[in-house]
Amino acid sequence: MQNAASALAGDEPELQADFPREMVKQLRAIDTYDTYQGWSEARILDPLIMTRQRKREIPIVGDPDEITMARVKAFYNALASQIEKRCGLMAVPVINLTHEGFGRAFITVGKLIVVDKTLRDVHRFGFPSLAKMNEEADMIISKALALIQTHAEVANL
């Protein structure tokens, strides 16, 4: 059962795409207290959807909590996992976040940096919709795969 403030319906076709399924795996992997036990995929991914209403409720300046920082790490872990699955080379996410919600995220393949993202305002991390999350993930993954193909020698080091 979903609450009234839920931004995702359980029957959304985007939930069947590879990336949201990987996000659910990553989020379940960091759930050491089995909080997500019995939860649907839509309920697990729901906090990542930042509707306008939800964004209005979050202050412009603020420190992210541990759960939000874990969601950011799960996002980059899921990206690395999808990159690794598609290219066959190990992809490693490296995330450095300050307690204020600023930092950087890298994904490396061999000696090649295939994703480099500056992180700001992590306390407001999320996507307008599940479709937008899928689009952004697909764009990042396709750019990373193109870099790997272009610089295969460095990626294989």
What does it look like?
The structure is a single chain. The protein is α+β, with helices and mostly antiparallel strands and 157 residues long. It has a single domain, classed as Orthogonal Bundle (Putative cytoplasmic protein), CATH 1.10.3100.20. The protein has helices at residues 18-29, 41-45, 52-57, 66-87, 130-150, 152-155, and strands at 91-97, 103-109, 112-119. It has a 3-stranded antiparallel sheet, with helices on one face. The longest helix is centred in the middle third of the chain and has 22 residues, at 66-87. The chain is globular, with a radius of gyration of 16 Å. The relative contact order is 0.17.
What CATH architecture label applies?
A: Orthogonal Bundle
Strand content: 5-15%
What best-fitting shape do the alpha-carbon axes yield? globular
State the share of residues found in helices, binned by percent.
40-55%
Uncertain residue segments: none
At a glance:
The chain has 157 residues and is of the alpha+beta class. The protein has helices at residues 18-29, 41-45, 52-57, 66-87, 130-150, 152-155; strands at residues 91-97, 103-109, 112-119.
Q: Which SSEs are present, and which pair or pack?
A:
Blueprint: H1 18-29, H2 41-45, H3 52-57, H4 66-87, E1 91-97, E2 103-109, E3 112-119, H5 130-150, H6 152-155
Antiparallel strand pairs: 1-2, 2-3
Helix pairs in contact: 1-4, 4-5
